[in-house]
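Usage

Read records sequentially. Each one opens with the input sequence:
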Amino acid sequence: MRLFDDVESAAVCAFHDKHVADKQWAHANAHARSEAAWTWIAANHRFNVLLWDEEDQARRTDVEAQAIADNKRAIDRFNQQRNDAIEKIDEALLARIANVAIAPDAWHNSETAGAIIDRLSILSLKVFHMDAQTRRADAPSRHIVECTDKLRRLEQQRADLARCLDTLLTLAAEGRAFWRVYRQFKMYNSPDLNPYLYAKR
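and closes with the structure output:
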Protein backbone atom coordinates (compact mmCIF):
# COMPACT_ATOMS: atom_id res chain seq x y z
CA MET A 1 0.00 0.00 0.00
CA ARG A 2 1.23 3.48 -0.82
CA LEU A 3 1.74 5.94 2.03
CA PHE A 4 -1.65 7.63 1.76
CA ASP A 5 -3.88 5.10 -0.01
CA ASP A 6 -6.22 4.77 2.98
CA VAL A 7 -6.77 8.53 3.29
CA GLU A 8 -7.49 9.31 -0.34
CA SER A 9 -10.37 11.73 -0.73
CA ALA A 10 -12.86 9.08 -1.83
CA ALA A 11 -12.43 7.20 1.46
CA VAL A 12 -12.53 10.37 3.54
CA CYS A 13 -15.65 11.70 1.81
CA ALA A 14 -17.39 8.33 2.09
CA PHE A 15 -16.67 8.31 5.82
CA HIS A 16 -17.97 11.86 6.20
CA ASP A 17 -21.16 11.02 4.31
CA LYS A 18 -21.76 7.88 6.36
CA HIS A 19 -21.81 9.85 9.61
CA VAL A 20 -22.96 13.27 8.46
CA ALA A 21 -26.40 13.06 10.09
CA ASP A 22 -25.61 10.49 12.76
CA LYS A 23 -25.89 12.43 16.02
CA GLN A 24 -25.89 9.19 18.00
CA TRP A 25 -22.46 8.35 16.54
CA ALA A 26 -21.26 11.89 17.23
CA HIS A 27 -22.32 11.79 20.87
CA ALA A 28 -20.92 8.27 21.36
CA ASN A 29 -17.32 9.51 21.02
CA ALA A 30 -16.65 6.68 18.57
CA HIS A 31 -13.53 6.39 16.46
CA ALA A 32 -13.32 4.99 12.95
CA ARG A 33 -10.30 2.73 13.39
CA SER A 34 -7.24 2.35 15.54
CA GLU A 35 -4.87 3.94 13.00
CA ALA A 36 -3.82 7.39 14.24
CA ALA A 37 -4.83 9.48 11.23
CA TRP A 38 -8.28 7.90 11.10
CA THR A 39 -8.80 8.30 14.83
CA TRP A 40 -8.42 12.05 14.38
CA ILE A 41 -10.30 12.24 11.06
CA ALA A 42 -13.22 10.67 12.94
CA ALA A 43 -12.82 13.02 15.90
CA ASN A 44 -12.67 16.07 13.65
CA HIS A 45 -15.84 15.05 11.80
CA ARG A 46 -17.60 14.27 15.07
CA PHE A 47 -16.86 17.74 16.42
CA ASN A 48 -18.07 19.33 13.16
CA VAL A 49 -21.36 17.40 13.37
CA LEU A 50 -21.82 18.54 16.97
CA LEU A 51 -20.81 22.10 16.07
CA TRP A 52 -23.36 22.28 13.28
CA ASP A 53 -26.19 21.34 15.62
CA GLU A 54 -25.10 23.82 18.29
CA GLU A 55 -24.77 26.60 15.70
CA ASP A 56 -28.35 25.95 14.55
CA GLN A 57 -29.64 25.98 18.12
CA ALA A 58 -27.77 29.18 18.96
CA ARG A 59 -29.92 31.08 16.43
CA ARG A 60 -33.15 30.36 18.31
CA THR A 61 -35.23 33.30 19.52
CA ASP A 62 -37.86 31.35 21.44
CA VAL A 63 -35.71 30.19 24.37
CA GLU A 64 -34.17 31.79 27.46
CA ALA A 65 -30.84 33.60 27.15
CA GLN A 66 -29.15 30.92 29.27
CA ALA A 67 -29.94 28.29 26.65
CA ILE A 68 -28.19 30.37 23.99
CA ALA A 69 -25.24 30.99 26.32
CA ASP A 70 -24.96 27.23 26.80
CA ASN A 71 -24.98 26.77 23.01
CA LYS A 72 -22.25 29.40 22.60
CA ARG A 73 -20.04 27.74 25.20
CA ALA A 74 -20.54 24.36 23.55
CA ILE A 75 -19.64 25.92 20.19
CA ASP A 76 -16.45 27.32 21.69
CA ARG A 77 -15.54 23.94 23.20
CA PHE A 78 -16.27 21.91 20.07
CA ASN A 79 -14.44 24.40 17.87
CA GLN A 80 -11.32 24.11 20.01
CA GLN A 81 -11.55 20.31 19.87
CA ARG A 82 -12.10 20.46 16.12
CA ASN A 83 -8.93 22.53 15.66
CA ASP A 84 -6.97 20.25 17.97
CA ALA A 85 -8.07 17.28 15.84
CA ILE A 86 -6.90 19.03 12.65
CA GLU A 87 -3.42 19.33 14.13
CA LYS A 88 -3.46 15.67 15.19
CA ILE A 89 -4.45 14.64 11.65
CA ASP A 90 -1.49 16.58 10.30
CA GLU A 91 0.89 15.09 12.85
CA ALA A 92 -0.23 11.57 11.96
CA LEU A 93 0.05 12.15 8.20
CA LEU A 94 3.41 13.90 8.45
CA ALA A 95 4.74 11.02 10.56
CA ARG A 96 4.14 8.73 7.57
CA ILE A 97 6.50 10.77 5.40
CA ALA A 98 9.09 11.67 8.04
CA ASN A 99 11.75 9.77 6.09
CA VAL A 100 10.81 11.16 2.67
CA ALA A 101 13.40 13.63 1.41
CA ILE A 102 11.85 16.95 0.43
CA ALA A 103 13.06 18.19 -2.95
CA PRO A 104 14.69 21.66 -2.97
CA ASP A 105 11.99 22.92 -5.33
CA ALA A 106 9.10 21.21 -3.51
CA TRP A 107 5.79 23.05 -3.38
CA HIS A 108 5.00 24.53 0.05
CA ASN A 109 1.24 24.17 0.44
CA SER A 110 -0.17 26.96 2.60
CA GLU A 111 -3.11 24.81 3.70
CA THR A 112 -2.37 21.62 5.58
CA ALA A 113 -3.82 18.24 4.66
CA GLY A 114 -5.64 18.23 7.99
CA ALA A 115 -7.25 21.58 7.21
CA ILE A 116 -8.39 20.27 3.82
CA ILE A 117 -9.93 17.20 5.48
CA ASP A 118 -11.68 19.50 7.94
CA ARG A 119 -13.10 21.57 5.07
CA LEU A 120 -14.29 18.38 3.37
CA SER A 121 -16.06 17.44 6.60
CA ILE A 122 -17.81 20.81 6.74
CA LEU A 123 -18.73 20.54 3.06
CA SER A 124 -20.32 17.14 3.67
CA LEU A 125 -22.55 18.83 6.25
CA LYS A 126 -23.37 21.69 3.90
CA VAL A 127 -24.21 19.31 1.07
CA PHE A 128 -26.38 17.14 3.30
CA HIS A 129 -28.34 20.03 4.77
CA MET A 130 -28.67 21.91 1.48
CA ASP A 131 -29.95 18.75 -0.16
CA ALA A 132 -32.58 18.51 2.58
CA GLN A 133 -33.69 22.04 1.68
CA THR A 134 -34.28 20.99 -1.94
CA ARG A 135 -36.73 18.34 -0.70
CA ARG A 136 -38.90 20.52 1.52
CA ALA A 137 -42.60 20.15 0.75
CA ASP A 138 -43.42 23.26 2.79
CA ALA A 139 -41.08 25.62 0.91
CA PRO A 140 -41.97 27.76 -2.14
CA SER A 141 -40.64 26.72 -5.54
CA ARG A 142 -38.18 29.63 -5.63
CA HIS A 143 -36.55 28.32 -2.44
CA ILE A 144 -36.18 24.87 -4.00
CA VAL A 145 -34.64 26.30 -7.17
CA GLU A 146 -32.19 28.49 -5.25
CA CYS A 147 -31.15 25.68 -2.94
CA THR A 148 -30.73 23.29 -5.87
CA ASP A 149 -28.32 25.76 -7.49
CA LYS A 150 -26.43 26.17 -4.18
CA LEU A 151 -26.25 22.39 -3.83
CA ARG A 152 -24.63 22.03 -7.25
CA ARG A 153 -22.05 24.68 -6.32
CA LEU A 154 -21.27 22.94 -3.03
CA GLU A 155 -20.85 19.59 -4.77
CA GLN A 156 -18.45 21.16 -7.27
CA GLN A 157 -16.49 22.80 -4.47
CA ARG A 158 -16.25 19.49 -2.65
CA ALA A 159 -15.07 17.64 -5.76
CA ASP A 160 -12.43 20.29 -6.44
CA LEU A 161 -11.21 20.25 -2.83
CA ALA A 162 -11.09 16.44 -2.81
CA ARG A 163 -8.85 16.54 -5.87
CA CYS A 164 -6.59 19.07 -4.13
CA LEU A 165 -6.20 16.72 -1.15
CA ASP A 166 -5.24 13.80 -3.38
CA THR A 167 -2.76 15.95 -5.29
CA LEU A 168 -1.12 17.24 -2.10
CA LEU A 169 -0.80 13.78 -0.58
CA THR A 170 0.57 12.26 -3.79
CA LEU A 171 3.19 14.98 -4.18
CA ALA A 172 4.10 14.92 -0.48
CA ALA A 173 4.70 11.16 -0.60
CA GLU A 174 7.15 11.82 -3.45
CA GLY A 175 8.88 14.72 -1.67
CA ARG A 176 7.56 17.21 -4.23
CA ALA A 177 5.25 19.08 -1.83
CA PHE A 178 5.07 19.68 1.90
CA TRP A 179 3.11 21.45 4.59
CA ARG A 180 3.81 22.45 8.16
CA VAL A 181 1.75 22.39 11.36
CA TYR A 182 1.75 25.93 12.72
CA ARG A 183 -0.72 25.46 15.62
CA GLN A 184 -3.88 27.50 15.99
CA PHE A 185 -3.07 29.27 19.28
CA LYS A 186 -6.68 30.12 20.07
CA MET A 187 -5.81 32.91 22.49
CA TYR A 188 -9.38 33.65 23.52
CA ASN A 189 -9.72 30.14 24.99
CA SER A 190 -6.65 30.44 27.18
CA PRO A 191 -6.97 31.77 30.76
CA ASP A 192 -3.34 32.86 30.42
CA LEU A 193 -3.74 34.76 27.13
CA ASN A 194 -7.27 36.23 27.18
CA PRO A 195 -7.10 39.56 29.11
CA TYR A 196 -10.75 39.26 30.18
CA LEU A 197 -9.88 35.99 31.88
CA TYR A 198 -6.45 36.60 33.39
CA ALA A 199 -7.29 40.13 34.59
CA LYS A 200 -9.79 38.72 37.10
CA ARG A 201 -7.30 36.38 38.73
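Summary fields computed downstream for this record:
- The longest strand covers residues 107-108.
- The chain has a mean pLDDT of 92.
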